[in-house]
Amino acid sequence: MVKERARILVVGGGYVGMYTALRLQQKLKQELRRGEAEITVVTPDPYMTYQPFLPEAAAGAISPRHVVVPLRRVLGQCRIVIGEARSIDHAKRTATLTTLATEEEGTGPQQITYDELVLAPGSISRTLPIPGLAEHGIGFRTVEEAIGLRNHVIEQMDIASSTRDPAIRDAALTFVFVGGGFAGVEALAELEDMARYTTRYYHNIKAEDMKWILVEASDRILPEVGEEMGRYTVTELRRRNIDVRLNTRLDSCADRVAVLSDGSRFPTRTLVWTAGVKSHPLLAATDLPLTERGRLKCTPELTVEGVTHAWAAGDAAAVPDVTAEEPGKETAPNAQHAVRQARVLGDNIVHSLRGEPLETYAHKYVGSVASLGLHEGVAHLYGRKLKGYPAWFMHRVYHLSRVPTFNRKARVLAEWTLSGLFKREIVSLGSLEHPRAEFELAAGGKPRTDPKGSS
C-alpha cells in the first residue's frame, strides 16, 4: 500500500513512457482501483511506434497500423492526454501543456500538477544548417514518414516512367540517404530491395537505372554491430550497386541537387536524412539538471540526480552504466536499454511510494541486429557474428519477441507469413497525405503542391 495518494505524470508515450506506465498499471492495480494512485500520460500521439519495424513498413512487408501500439487499449487504467508538455516547474510540481483543443479553446496552455514525474519525451532528429535541407529533406523517425517515403519512392518511379525529359528521369531515379546508422542503412536497404522488385512491373525502368547513394561522415557504418560486420555490410551494399560514400558529408541540397564534400553532385528528388538525434527541447524548459549534451543527469536507480520525485530513462536520460569497466560511461540511448530501464523505473516508483529500497539498473548490452532487405542481414549478439540469412532470421525473431502485446506479435507474424506466400504490394497511396485535395479542387479551390514538388 502506498503511503499517500500519488499523482504520477508520465511525459512521453514512446518506449519508456508506455512501458513505465504499463508497469505502474500492473504494480499499482489495487491502488488505482481504490483511488489512491492516478497515472496520467501526456503524449503527442495516441500510440507508441515500434521503430525497428519502420524500414519493413516502408518496404510494405508490414502494415503501418501493426507498427504502432494504441496507448488507450494497452493503458486502460491510465488517463491519456494527447498533447505536448511545453515546460516543467518541478519545484512547484507543475507541467504546462498544450492539447489538440488548446487553440480552439483560446484560453492558452493548461497546467497540470503531479507528485511523481517520469520524464521520457525521447529525442528529435539532429539536423545541420545545410542549404536546402529543410525544404527538401525527408526524415525517417515516424510511421507517417516511413509510409510517406514508400509512396514517394514509387511515385518517383511513376514520374521516371512517364517523363520524356532525361534530366527529370535521372533525378527521379536517384535516391540519397544521409546517415550510416541503423535507420539509414535499414531504410535504404529495404527500399532498394522493394524498388528493385517493383521495376519488373515497369516496361521502361530497370534496376540498374536507379542510383542509391549512402552518405556517411565517419569511416564506418553500423558501428553497433562491430567493425567486421560493418565492413561486410558495405561490401554487401556495394554488391547491390549501392554507392556507399564513407568520410563524406552533405554540403548542400539546394535546388534539389545533393552536393557532397568529395565534390560529387547528384540531382535528386529524394534526400532522406537519418544522421543522428539530439535531446528533446522540452528538457531545456525544465528546472532539472542537464549534462553538457542536454540530457538529464540520472542515477543508476533512474532518479534525476539531486532531485526527489523526478525519474527519467531512455534517450532523455544520461544513466550511468554500472556494468562498464571504465568509470563515467553511460548506457547507450537505444531501445534495448529503454525497455529494460522502463521496467526498473516503474518498479522503483512503486518502491519509493511504499518506502522500500530502490533497485539499481544494470544490464550488459547483448549486441545488435540489422536487416538489409529480404533474407539479408548482419548481427552481433552475445559475441557471435552472423550475416546473410541467419542474421536476417535472427532480426525477425528478436524484434517479434520484443514488439509489445500478443495482438501485435500475431498480426506481424501473419503478415510475414502471407508476404512469403504472395507477391509484394507495390501500390503508392500518395493521396493519403492530402485526402481533401480532390474535393477542394472540385469545390473550386486551388490544387495544393507539396514541398517536394509533387502535386
UniProtKB/TrEMBL annotation:
InterPro entries: FAD/NAD-bd_sf, FAD/NAD-binding_dom, NDH-2. The keyword NAD applies. GO terms for molecular function: NADH dehydrogenase activity. It holds the Pfam family Pyr_redox_2. Transmembrane segments: none annotated. Residues 7-342 form the FAD/NAD(P)-binding domain. Keywords: FAD, Flavoprotein, NAD, Oxidoreductase. Belongs to the NADH dehydrogenase family. This is NAD(P)/FAD-dependent oxidoreductase. The lineage of its organism: Bacteria, Bacillati, Actinomycetota, Actinomycetes, Kitasatosporales.
